[in-house]
Amino acid sequence: MDLKDVYKRVIRRQDVKANWDAFPDFKKATYRYIGTLASKDTSIPPVLMDSEISLGIIEAGPGPQAALHNHEVEEIFMPLEGLWEFFWGPNGEERVTLGPLDVITVPPGVLRGFNNVGGTTGRLLVLQSSAEADGAAFVDKEKLTNITETNS
Fold first, then answer.
1. CATH classification of 11-147, choosing from 2.60.120.10, 3.40.50.620, 3.40.1360.10, 3.30.530.20?
2. Which Gene3D superfamilies match (predicted)?
């Protein structure tokens, strides 16, 4: 690779458009900088696909944002603004609340979900270990034995 080619990999914030349709399950904007972030929606493509990872930001108001689901890739979350509750396990029974610059990493295949539990719009940095991760496999709510209002 020519060192000048690295300039082609610079992504400016103004070049990343909010995609409100990438994950239609809840009302949230997804900013896909690198890779698909496991969304099949192509209406607003990621800025860069030539990478081994996915990187983006989710922006959402208070409330549920991702129901219990899994991916076959590692997923790393870092709240940038607000308070976010993460839950995982067969029924979402394990949980932790994280604030700005805290981190959680969820291994491939582990059921997980998250909610904005703060009182304002929050921003969440999301990193996945694949640029083209498959879409999320959501769990049918009726199959869960320990579901709560915060992780439904």
1. 2.60.120.10
2. Jelly Rolls
